[in-house]
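User: Hey, my collaborator sent me this sequence without any context and asked if I could get a structure. I don't really work with proteins. Can you help?
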Amino acid sequence: MRLHGDVSDDEGDAVMDPALLSSSSPNGAAVAAAVAAPRLVVGYALTKKKVKSFLQPKLLLLARKKGISFVSIDETRPLSEQGPFDIILHKITSKEWQQVLEEPKLEKMTTDSRKSCILEFLHFVKDYHEVHPEVTVLDPPSAIEHLNNRQSMLEEVADLNLSSFYEEVCTPRQLVIMKDPSSIPTAVAMAGLTLPLVAKPLVVDGTSKSHELSLAYDEASLSMLDPPLVLQEFVNHGGILFKVYIIGEAIQVVRRFSVPDVNTYDLLNNVGIYRLPRVSCAAASADHADLDPRIAELPPRPLLEKLSRELRGRLGLRLFNVDMIRELGANDRYYIIDINYFPGYGKMPGYEHIFTDFLQSLGQNNYKRSLSGG
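Assistant: No problem. I've predicted the 3D structure and written it out in C-alpha cell form, which is a compact way to encode the shape of the chain:
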C-alpha cells in the first residue's frame, strides 16, 4: 500500500518528457511499455539546486525505462493528500521546509514558531512512516539530523573498531568551540592540539557557508576564527582525498585533489587563516591524474565494505558519503574527516545505473513484504 490519495496523470509535478513517450521516437515503444507497466513512484522533496544536479536527463530516461517515475511533492499541500508514493526521497533545508507549511499567517510567526512548524512536519514524516512502513523514507529525518552537526557526525566513527590485520580507521583529534574567539588559543593549548588546524562550521545546514573550510597556521590567528566551529588537526595525506559514495549496499570511490601537505617550512613561513578550496566539485577530480601509485591507491575494498556496513547500521542511513584520507607515510592508517547525507551523486560516474538499481531493489523488497503480509 502507498500513501493516501490517488494520482491522476496530471497530478503532481512528475518529471516527464512527452517526446520520450511518442511512439514515433526511436525509444518510444520501449519507454511506453515501461510506463504502462506497474510503476515505482518516488516522491521527492529537494532543493532547486539538488533537483538540477541529481535529476539529470540520463537518470530520468533510465529510470523511466525501468518503470520508475519521480514526482515532486507539492509544497503547498499536506503530504497526506498526495501520492500514492512507494518511496519518499528528501533533502531540503529547514528554510525551504517552511514553504511546505506556508500560509499567510506564517509570515507573522516568531522564529521559534516557525521552527516548531518545521519540526512538526519532520515528525509527521517520521510518524507517517511508522504507520505506513511499506512507504520507504530515504532517509529518516532523525537519522539525518545526526549529520547536521560536525561534533556528533564523527562520534559513531570514533566508536567503531574497524581495525583489520593491516588497516586502521580513525578520526582526527578535534575540538568544538561554541563562542568567544579570544578563548580559542588557550582552549587549543589545553586540548594539546597540534597546528595547523582545519576550521569547519559546526552546523551543516546545506548552505555553501557550512562547507567553507579554513586552515589556521599559527596560534595568534586562531582568535580570528568565527565560532561556533570545529577545529581538526591537519593530517598530511599526499593532497588526495577519497570520496566514498554509498547507495544502499553499493560503494563507489573517487579521488579528489585536496589540500597540499604542510611541512616545517610552511609552518615557519605562513601565518594567518587560509580559505580552503572545495573538493566536492568534479573539476577537482584526480581519477585520471598522473599520481604516485602509493598515494593514488584506493582504500582496500574489504575495508570499505566493512566501514559501509557498520556506518549504515549505526547511522540508520542508506544515502551518504564519507570523506576519507590516508596518512602520508602510513599506508595502513585512514582518517574519516566528514560524512554527508545525500551527497552530489550526479558527480559520480555511472550514478544513474547504481541509483535506479537501488530504487528497484527497494521496490522489490516492499513488494515481497506485501505478498507475505509483513
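In plain terms: Confidence is low (pLDDT under 50) at residues 1-26, 29-37, 96-111. You can pass these C-alpha cells on to your collaborator as they are.
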